[in-house]
Structure formats: structure tokens, C-alpha cells
Amino acid sequence: MKSVKFSNMELQAVMKFLFLQKKTLKEIHEFMMQTLSDKCPSYSTVKKRCASFQCGDFETEDAARSGRPSTVSTPEIVDHVHDLILADQQISAKRIAETLQISRERVGFIIHEQQGMQKLPAKSMPKLETFKLILQHFQLDDTSFSPLAQCTAVPLESSQTSCSLTDPHTTLIPTPR
Fold it and tell me: What InterPro entries does the database record attribute to this sequence (predicted)?
């Protein structure tokens, strides 16, 4: 037979039913041991629960817990965190936490768990200086560069040292300096 798992609320409902049947603590625990074997609550748990039943507390749901409610991860806050990151990709989690007045840990949870973002290692991204040197080598400025340009490289002769891009849909044409 497949093992059945009971939630705390279900176990409390069973104890409540047996208590209302006028069973003793020992009978309630023995009945639950026969039925649930190793999944049965301890005798002291049964005793505490039955004591609360005797006091008139027949609630089987857990009471509300004290502490701050989890209202920080609302869709509005998640969107605001996303907007802050898009506005400044180098913004720190501490700065986001200060801006939104939420904890640093909650910001990390929103970024990594809810938005699925992660840091990219610096080694995987070209440095800005390297990128500018490449553009200078090919005599391009930052505004004329299009990553979507479909260009094919033409081999340079040994006397020529640079290339220029005349049209994004044409080939790189060697030009003398």
C-alpha cells in the first residue's frame, strides 16, 4: 500500500474527531499509531492538542504568525527593481534597497529568483577600451557601428593597414592610409 502523507491540519482534524468521540489520550495516540505508524505525532503532541480542545480551542488551522507580512515582493516592487536595473546596469543591490526602503536580502531574492537575473563575469564581456581600439582600427566611430551589419572581410594586402566600412550591407574594403 502506498504511504499517505497527512498535513498538520489533517492530523489535528483526526485528533479533534477522536476527542469528540470521548476517546482518552492513550486511545487517540494508539489509534493514530496503528493507522499512521512512523508518521504518527508523538504522545506529547497529542496531549498538547487535546488540552487545547478541552479549553474550547477547536481550530485546526494554524494561527497567524507575528512579524512583518511578506508585502515586499509585490509585482509593483518587482517592476520597480527591474526598471532601476535597466536604467543603471551597474547599480548595487544596496542602493536599490535604500531607494525602495526594503531589505538587501529581499532585493537579492527579487533579482535572482523572481527575475532570473545574474551577474556576467567581466571576462565574458569585451572592455570598452578594446571595443574603441577595434573601431579606431577600422576607422569607424561609435555611431556608425551596427552589430546587425552583415559584412564579409576582404583580406588586406601587406602594405595596407586599415579598412573602412562604406555600407553595412557591403564588404569591408581595404583603404590605404
Answer: Mos1_HTH (IPR041426), Transposase-MT_Hybrid (IPR052709)
Strand locations in the chain (E): 162-164, 173-175
**Alpha carbon distance 111, 137 (integer Å):** 38
* Residue found by looking up cell 578594446 in the block: 130
109 and 145 belong to one structural domain? no
CA distance 110 to 79: 10
Q: What is the rounded CA–CA span in Å between residue 177 and residue 161?
A: 7
Q: What is the CATH number of the domain that holds 98?
A: 1.10.10
Please tell me whether residue 174 adopts helix, strand or coil conformation.
Answer: strand
Q: What is the mean pLDDT of the chain?
A: 75
**In a shared domain, residues 114 and 131:** no
Q: Which three cell numbers stand for residue 169?
A: 550591407
pLDDT in tens, 101-113: 988 988 988 888 8
- Nearest Cα residue to 28 out of 53, 60, 55: 53
Kindly report whether the global pTM for this prediction surpasses the value 0.85. no
pLDDT digits (tens, 9 = 90+) for 11-34: 888 999 999 999 999 999 999 999
Residues of the domain holding 164: 121-177
b/e burial code for range 92-111 (CB count within 10 A of at least 16 → b): ebeebbeebebeeebbeebb
